[in-house]
UniProtKB/TrEMBL annotation:
Region (Disordered): 1-41
Signal peptide (UniProt feature, chain positions): none
Organism: Arthrobacter crusticola
Protein name: Ionic transporter y4hA
Domain of life of the native organism: Bacteria
GO CC, alphabetical: plasma membrane
The keyword Membrane is annotated on this UniProt entry: yes
Residue ranges that the Swiss-Prot or TrEMBL entry lists as coiled coil: none
Ranges of compositional bias, category Basic and acidic residues: 15-27
Length: 418
């Protein structure tokens, strides 16, 4: 009798405690209470949260592998409209996966190494794509390297940079960055672009807008030396010039961004896995872009657009991962990271492409046209001047971002209607 009474008393006590803790338990189950906030620390996870986490981690691993399989199955094959649409979907997924893995690596190694990894990876694959298309295309692709490199410079210096400035300024009013590092990068871009894309139009060793073998060798060696000097400055000598500027006093990012910013870096194993998957994703991006390029070429010809516009489309596809990564960095008030991605990609595109193309001329037949036309030279000059005015104050508003985006629109419009 006493035991039963005691049992009922204890049961009633537990019920009263649970009634008092009911709201707290409910908040914890929905992630709004202390349990939800500390579920990782306590080793417990809500089933829905666990499922979402597994899905987020699985698709970034699965998509690059699937894209590589699709690339193998579609390589050197004529694709129908439905197959092209399916490849385009896989291509978009590969781009998003590449952005995810690049950000994992950047979080592990820190700036500016993270931006450098993505810029170099994309450029190496871009160079491989250019050489592949030049080998298969014959003399008709004599200007492909010029068109692709120039498009990459315009897309990065105006598109990626302009969008990052606009997005950051819309969210935070003004954005700030290091003028020392950004100005140095812009100076290297101006030097590389003028030496490799403008000078061939004015030299007299050859009749067309191309270098002689000796001039091409010098341009290749000089470009590689400039790129090496820039990387040394960015990562060793003056790394602090390329680090994000501290947020303005009183400015605070969204809670999710703030939590991501202060999250512990991933393990070495996770970073190495992301590095391998990033390489797979980038190979898939470039390969699938090449797979859909015949459809793009057919569409360009049907629309009466110059064939050089195909290089612009391919450059847009290849540089999409960097554009997304730069935009996401701008949304976290890390505009310096966005500029590192944009200007670093432009430098890598010229500094690595020209030496490799110069070396490839030893076995490639036909001319190599590098010199820009008068319209392109004007656009390049305007890009350099506007970029200097943007970088000089060390801060920017949405006006500067809009100017760069309008300049990119002018480049694309004139590429379609020369």
């Amino acid at each position: 009798m006493d035991r039963n009474s005691g049992g009922r008393s204890n049961s009633g006590g537990r019920n009263r405690v649970e009634e008092r803790r009911g709201p707290e338990l409910e908040a914890n189950r929905t992630g709004n209470g202390r349990w939800g906030q500390n579920e990782w620390a306590n080793g417990r996870r809500d089933p829905v949260t666990s499922l979402i986490g597994r899905l987020q981690s699985s698709w970034t691993v699965t998509v690059p592998v699937v894209a590589l399989v699709v690339l193998v199955l579609t390589w050197q094959r004529n694709l129908g409209a439905l197959a092209v649409a399916a490849v385009a979907v896989v291509l978009v997924g590969s781009i998003l996966a590449a952005v995810h893995h690049a950000e994992v690596i950047a979080h592990r190694v820190g700036e500016p190494f993270g931006s450098l990894v993505l810029a170099v990876a994309v450029t190496v694959i871009e160079v491989a794509l250019i050489i592949t298309l030049m080998i298969s295309g014959g003399p008709e692709t004599a200007s492909l390297a010029r068109d692709t490199v120039f498009a990459a410079v315009m897309i990065t210096a105006n598109g990626i940079v302009g969008l990052a400035l606009l997005v950051g300024a819309v969210r935070f009013g003004t954005v700030r960055f290091n003028t020392e590092g950004t100005g140095a990068a812009l100076g290297v871009i101006a030097m590389l672009a003028t030496m490799t894309l403008v000078l061939p139009s004015f030299t007299s060793a050859r009749s067309g807008p191309e270098f002689s073998p000796a001039q091409l060798a010098f341009a290749g060696i000089a470009s590689l030396a400039l790129y090496a000097a820039f990387v040394s400055t960015q990562t060793v000598r003056h790394r602090d010039f390329f680090l994000p500027v501290p947020a303005h006093p009183g400015r605070r990012a969204a809670a999710a961004d703030d939590a991501e910013e202060h999250a512990p870096p991933p393990s070495t194993r996770a970073a190495l896995l992301s590095l391998g998957l990033l390489a797979v994703a980038l190979v898939a991006v470039v390969g699938l872009a090449k797979a859909v390029s015949p459809a793009i070429e057919a569409g360009v010809k049907a629309a009466g657009i110059p064939e050089s516009f195909v290089g612009v489309v391919i450059a847009l596809l290849v540089l999409t991962p960097e554009g997304i990564a730069a935009t996401r960095a701008a949304l976290r008030d890390r505009i310096q990271t966005s500029l590192n991605l944009g200007y670093g990609s432009a430098i890598a595109s010229i500094g690595l492409t020209v030496p490799v193309i110069a070396l490839s001329t030893l076995w490639l037949e036909g001319p190599l046209i590098l010199g820009l036309g008068s319209t392109q030279i004007v656009l390049l000059t305007l890009t350099v001047v506007v970029s200097v005015l943007t970088v000089a104050p060390g801060r920017a508003t949405r006006l500067q971002g809009t100017v760069h985006l309008i300049l990119l629109a002018a480049f694309i419009f004139l590429a379609i209607n020369p």
